[in-house]
Design a protein that fits this description.
The chain has 693 residues and is of the alpha/beta class. The chain has helices spanning 2-19, 54-68, 71-81, 87-93, 100-108, 129-186, 194-231, 236-240, 243-246, 249-271, 277-369, 391-416, 423-430, 450-457, 459-462, 467-480, 502-515, 532-536, 544-548, 554-557, 578-583, 585-597, 613-620, 635-647, 669-681, 686-692, and strands at 24-32, 109-113, 119-126, 374-378, 434-439, 490-494, 520-524, 559-560, 566-569, 600-604, 623-629, 652-660. The chain is built from 26 helices and twelve strands.
Length: 693
C-alpha cells in the first residue's frame, strides 16, 4: 500500500510537472520612503504619504503593497503596454468585463518586502521572460506616477476647497468688522477701546477710593477734636488747653504780652497808686490784650470748625464721585457683555481667514514642487531560467506526500480492521490462551467435489509430514498438557461464525490424537449442516439423532474409518428439533457412554452465532475449543461466542487460529521452525518427497 501510493503520487507529480508551462520571474525593486522630501521647511503636504509610529508605519507599507497590486495600477499598466492587443490577453480584452486584462496582470504580480528595509520587490511571473521584465518595470513606474498623481490630486482638491472657504470667511470677516465698528460707534468707543475705558474707570475708582479713605480718616480725627472744642467754647480756660489754640502763634504772642504787662502792672502798682496815669495806661493795655486774646481764641475755634465742615464736604464730594465711577463701571460691564461676542467672532474670523489664506499659498507651492516619496531602485532584467515548474522539488514533495499518505492509509486500514489475525489479537481481546495455529489446508471451496473435500479434511492423515500436521500435533500436546493428571475426554469444537474451518480442525485433531495411540471418536452434533459422513465416506442413514430417539444403538451407528484408532458417529437424519434433542437426558447419557468407550471424544458442533447448541454441548463436556479464522473472524463475533459459552458455564480450553499465512513474520519464530522442520526433516511436500524417493 505504501509503495503503490508513493509511486502513484510521484507519477501524478511527474505528469503534472511535465504538462505545466514554463514560468519566468522578473523582479523590479523600489524604495518607499515614509515621507517625501521637505523642500520648504514648515510647509506640509496635503496628503501625508508617510507616518511616524511603528504600527502606523507597518500599516502604511502594507497599504502601499496593496496599491501596487491594485486594479487601478494594473489598468494603467495594461493601457501603457497595450496588452489588449497581445494574443495572450486578447480573449480577456474582448470580454465584457473592462477589468479582465487588469485582473490577469494582478494574478501575475506580487510584492515582497525586503526585511529590515524600505525596499519592496515587485515580482512578475509570465510565460515570456521579456514580457515579465517589461510588466515589472512598468508596474514600478506606474505606481510612482499613481502615488504622485494621488498627492497632486489631493492638493488640487484641497486648494479648490480652500479657495471657496477663503471667499466665505473673507465675507464673514468683513461683516464682523462692520458690526463691531457700528457697536463701538453707538457706545462712543471709537476714541478709546473698551478695555482702555474699563482700565481708566477702574483706576479712577481706585484713586477716588484711596482719597475717600484719607478724607474719612481726617474727618474722624477732626471730629474727635471738634467735640472737645464744642465743650470748651464758653470756657476760656478749657479753650486755652485745646492743642490747636496752643499751637496758634498769635495766641502764644498775646499770652506772652499779657504776662509781660501783668509784670509791669505789678511793678507800677508797687510804686504808684491805682489812679496813676501809668497804671491806667497799663490797665488799658492789659484789657486790650485780653480782648484780642479772647477774640483770637474764638477765631482759632472758628477756623477749626470751618476746616471740619470743609472735610465733611470733601468726603461727600468723593462719595458722589465714587458712585459715579461705579455706575460707569457697571455700564461698561454691560457694554462688555455685548462687545465681547462681537470682538471674539471678529478675532476668530480673522484667524480662520489668515489660516486658510496661508494654507492656500502653501498648497500652491507644494503643487509646484512635485516631490515623491517613491523612487525606482533597480529595474527588472530579462530572466534567463524559468522558476516553475520545479521537477526535483515536485517529485520530492510527491514522494513525501505519497509516502506519508501510504503510511496513513495502511495505518487506517489496520485500525479499521477488527478481525483476529494473530495470537496476540486473540489473547488481547478474548483473554483466552491460544493453543496453536493451523495453516491453510487444501481447497476451501464448500462446493468442491466429495473427493476434494475428503482430501482437504484428511490432509494431515494423507501427508503426516506436512506443516499442518506438525501444527496439529502441537495443539494436541497443548490440550493434553493443560491438565496432565486429568486430561479432557470429551471436547466440543465450535466457532463464532460459519466457514471458519471448525469441522476440518476437529478431524485433524482427532487424527493426530489417534496417531498418538488413543482411541478417538468424532461425533457430528451439527444437526443442521452435518459433514463428517462426507469427509470419512460413511453412510448417514443412522447416527446420533437416531440413537437419541431410540431407533438405533451406538454399536449400530458408530463407523470405523481408514484412520487407525479413529471412529466416527455421524449425525444421521436431520431432526426438526435439534436443540430439544441436545437437551434430552438421553443425549447426555450417550455422551457419557461414549466417554467410557473411548479415550477422547470430539464433538463437531454448529457455530455459536447461529444456534445455542455449542453452549448446551459445552455444559455437558469437559471443555470447548473455539476455532477462529485468521484475518476473517470479527472480534465482536469471537467475544460474543466467549460470552455465550461462559454464560452456559462451559469450560473454554483455548482458541485455535485457523488458515494462517505463515509467511507473515508476526506469528513468531516457532512457526517458521515448524515450516522449515517439516520441509527439512520430512522431505518437504508430498511431491518433493515422492521425487526424492
Amino acid at each position: 500500500m505504501v509503495a503503490l501510493t508513493t509511486l502513484a503520487a510521484m507519477g501524478v507529480a511527474f505528469l503534472y510537472t511535465y504538462r505545466q508551462p514554463k514560468i519566468y520571474e522578473a523582479t523590479c525593486q523600489i524604495v518607499i520612503e515614509p515621507m517625501s522630501p521637505q523642500v520648504l521647511q514648515g510647509v506640509k503636504d496635503v496628503v501625508e504619504l508617510g507616518t511616524g509610529t511603528y504600527w502606523a508605519t507597518k500599516e502604511f507599507y502594507e497599504t502601499q503593497y496593496r496599491i501596487i497590486q491594485s486594479t487601478a495600477v494594473a489598468m494603467r499598466v495594461a493601457e501603457k503596454l497595450g496588452l489588449g492587443n497581445d494574443p495572450d490577453f486578447r480573449e480577456a480584452a474582448q470580454s465584457k468585463d473592462p477589468t479582465a486584462v487588469a485582473r490577469m496582470i494582478q494574478s501575475r504580480v506580487r510584492v515582497q518586502p525586503v526585511k529590515d528595509s524600505r525596499i519592496g520587490s515587485i515580482i512578475v511571473e509570465d510565460v515570456k521572460p521579456q514580457r515579465a521584465a517589461l510588466i515589472a518595470n512598468t508596474v514600478g513606474e506606474t505606481y510612482m506616477e499613481y502615488n504622485l498623481d494621488y498627492k497632486l490630486e489631493g492638493a488640487k482638491t484641497a486648494n479648490a476647497w480652500l479657495s471657496e472657504q477663503a471667499i466665505e470667511y473673507k465675507k464673514k470677516l468683513r461683516d464682523s468688522e462692520l458690526g463691531l465698528y457700528e457697536f463701538r460707534r453707538q457706545r462712543n468707543l471709537l476714541a478709546a477701546r473698551l478695555d482702555d475705558r474699563q482700565s481708566m474707570t477702574a483706576q479712577n475708582l481706585e484713586n477716588v477710593s484711596a482719597a475717600l479713605s484719607k478724607v474719612r480718616l481726617k474727618r474722624i480725627e477732626i471730629e474727635a477734636a471738634r467735640k472737645l472744642i464744642l465743650s470748651a467754647k464758653d470756657d476760656i480756660n478749657r479753650a486755652e488747653s485745646i492743642p490747636e489754640v496752643q499751637a496758634s502763634e498769635v495766641v502764644t504772642g498775646l499770652r506772652r504780652a499779657f504776662v509781660q504787662l501783668s509784670k509791669d502792672r505789678a511793678e507800677l502798682l508797687a510804686k504808684y497808686g491805682p489812679e496813676h496815669p501809668k497804671m491806667k495806661m497799663v490797665e488799658g493795655q492789659i484789657q486790650s490784650i485780653q480782648e484780642a486774646y479772647h477774640k483770637e481764641i474764638a477765631n482759632v475755634l472758628a477756623t477749626f470748625e470751618n476746616e471740619y465742615l470743609a472735610v465733611v464736604d470733601q468726603e461727600k464730594a468723593l462719595m458722589r464721585a465714587m458712585e459715579d465711577e461705579k455706575k460707569e463701571a457697571i455700564e461698561l460691564s454691560k457694554v462688555e457683555v455685548e462687545y465681547k461676542p462681537l470682538s471674539r467672532d471678529n478675532e476668530e474670523n480673522l484667524k480662520l481667514y489668515n489660516l486658510i489664506s496661508t494654507r492656500e499659498r502653501e498648497i500652491d507651492l507644494t503643487g509646484l514642487l512635485r516631490t515623491n516619496n517613491v523612487r525606482l531602485l533597480e529595474r527588472a532584467i530579462v530572466p534567463g531560467a524559468p522558476v516553475r515548474p520545479r521537477p526535483v522539488q515536485n517529485l520530492m514533495i510527491a514522494f513525501l506526500v505519497g509516502l506519508g499518505g501510504g503510511i496513513g492509509i495502511a495505518l487506517l486500514i489496520e485500525a479499521l480492521d477488527n478481525t483476529l489475525k494473530s495470537p496476540s489479537d486473540v489473547e488481547a481481546y478474548l483473554g483466552i490462551p491460544v493453543l496453536g495455529l493451523i495453516p491453510v489446508i487444501g481447497n476451501k471451496d464448500e462446493k468442491a467435489s466429495p473427493d476434494k473435500i475428503r482430501e482437504r479434511d484428511l490432509g494431515i492423515f494423507m501427508d503426516p509430514k506436512s506443516l499442518a500436521a506438525e501444527c496439529c500435533r502441537s495443539i494436541r500436546t497443548n490440550i493434553l498438557f493443560m491438565s496432565p493428571d486429568h486430561p479432557p475426554h470429551t471436547i466440543v469444537v465450535t466457532s463464532p461464525s460459519p466457514q471458519e474451518g471448525k469441522t476440518t480442525t476437529t478431524i485433524n485433531l482427532a487424527v493426530t490424537m489417534a496417531e498418538a495411540g488413543a482411541r478417538v471418536l468424532i461425533i457430528d452434533t451439527d444437526m443442521r449442516r452435518p459433514r463428517l459422513h462426507r469427509s470419512f465416506g460413511v453412510p448417514n442413514q443412522a447416527g446420533i439423532s437416531t440413537v437419541v430417539v431410540g431407533n438405533s444403538t451406538l454399536d449400530e451407528v458408530i463407523k470405523r474409518t481408514e484412520v487407525p484408532n479413529l471412529d466416527v458417529l455421524p449425525c444421521g437424519p436431520l431432526p426438526p428439533n435439534p436443540s430439544e434433542l441436545l437437551h434430552a437426558e438421553r443425549f447426555a447419557q450417550i455422551i457419557r457412554d461414549c466417554a467410557k468407550r473411548y479415550d477422547r471424544v470430539l464433538l463437531d458442533s454448529p457455530p455459536t452465532s447461529a444456534v445455542t447448541d455449542p453452549a448446551v454441548l459445552g455444559n455437558l463436556c469437559d471443555g470447548v475449543l473455539l476455532v477462529v479464522k485468521g484475518g476473517q473472524t470479527k472480534r465482536e463475533s469471537a467475544a460474543l461466542a466467549r460470552r455465550q459459552l461462559l454464560a452456559a458455564k462451559a469450560k473454554i480450553l483455548g482458541v485455535i487460529v485457523n488458515e494462517i499465512d505463515f509467511s507473515n513474520p508476526s506469528y513468531g519464530y516457532q512457526y517458521y521452525y515448524y515450516r522449515d522442520y517439516a520441509r527439512y526433516g520430512y522431505g518437504g511436500s508430498p511431491e518433493e518427497r515422492e521425487a526424492s524417493s
